[in-house]
Amino acid sequence: MSQIDLKNNTTIISNISKYVVSDIIFTCPDGFTLDLFSFDKPMLARRFNPEQYMVSLAGYEQKYAGIPTYQDISSWLTENYEQATRFGQYVGGWSDQDLFYFDISIAISGLGNALEVARTNQQLAIYHPATSGTIHISDHILQATA
pTM, whole model, 2 decimals? Predict the structure, then answer.
């Protein structure tokens, strides 16, 4: 699959930003993962093996007070395109009370592997697209020590 050069293609950035702001955030208010190349939401179980998990990468998370604007998403994509395409092709977003988060996500096979990558990246949770479920890292630490 060829990678899209987002930095040099303002049309692509514009289309993704409009799609995120006008459609995805409102149809998936609890959260989403977006494939940058196909614009498909891989959270649908048909797209992922049940052994795959989405993990956010430390250092690429952006927090917004409320729902981000088109300009917010466009600016974030412009700044992070290279990392998003180098580490994978997914970006994710979710809300938590009055805050909205946007980040780079990678697909990891195996729960143990995903938990380890999440710990390394100082994440509190991972996402399981096959079940649309959030798995909190602290729950697994407690289970492992019990």
Answer: 0.77
